[in-house]
């Protein structure tokens, strides 16, 4: 059982704090990888929830591999985004803390699973489509500004 399901079995939909990790994957052309999400059919960065026993970097790399088919390496931490509150469509509530890294692909090829991911695209960061939430919008803005170690 994954961590979020385990917690939700105990607290129901009450507010909890969730740790997420994601990566702004940048290719050799300077384009960033975006994922059209299966849950909302909107664009965002690949990433997801941290599981017990893994580091934030391991979480970010695992999630990118699961959602895109790419193995990545991390360059640096862009920022930590912690002042965001979400109510999910099922009524679950959470304050989400996203640890967002810059990285690059080292092997693999893009793979759309049709469930979590319905489309993947490398895009010019200055011409990215609208992103699905404010947290990801702030991540993109900080990447564009060449931020490192930003806290929001």
TrEMBL record:
Pfam assignment, any one: NUDIX
Alphabetized UniProt keyword annotations: Hydrolase
Protein name per Swiss-Prot or TrEMBL: NUDIX domain-containing protein
Domain of life: Bacteria
GO molecular function: hydrolase activity
Cofactor list: Mg(2+)
CDD domains listed in its UniProt record: NUDIX_Hydrolase
Gene3D superfamilies: Nucleoside Triphosphate Pyrophosphohydrolase (3.90.79.10)
UniProt family annotation: Belongs to the Nudix hydrolase family.
Statement: the UniProt record of this protein carries the keyword Flavoprotein: no
InterPro entries with a match to the protein in the record: Nudix_hydrolase, NUDIX_hydrolase-like_dom_sf, NUDIX_hydrolase_CS, NUDIX_hydrolase_dom
Organism: Shouchella lehensis
UniProt domain Nudix hydrolase: residue ranges: 15-146
């Amino acid at each position: 059982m994954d961590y979020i399901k385990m917690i939700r079995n105990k607290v129901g939909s009450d507010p909890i704090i969730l740790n997420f990790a994601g990566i702004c994957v940048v290719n050799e052309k300077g384009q960033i990888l975006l994922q059209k999400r299966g849950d909302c059919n909107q664009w965002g960065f690949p990433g997801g929830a941290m599981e017990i026993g893994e580091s934030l970097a391991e979480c970010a790399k695992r999630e990118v591999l699961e959602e895109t088919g790419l193995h990545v390496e991390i360059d640096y931490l862009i920022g930590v985004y912690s002042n965001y509150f979400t109510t999910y469509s099922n009524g679950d509530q959470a304050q989400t803390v996203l640890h967002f890294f810059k990285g690059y692909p080292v092997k693999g090829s893009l793979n759309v699973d049709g469930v979590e991911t319905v489309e993947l695209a490398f895009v010019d960061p200055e011409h990215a489509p609208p992103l699905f939430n404010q947290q990801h919008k702030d991540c993109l803005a900080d990447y564009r500004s060449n931020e490192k170690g930003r806290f929001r």
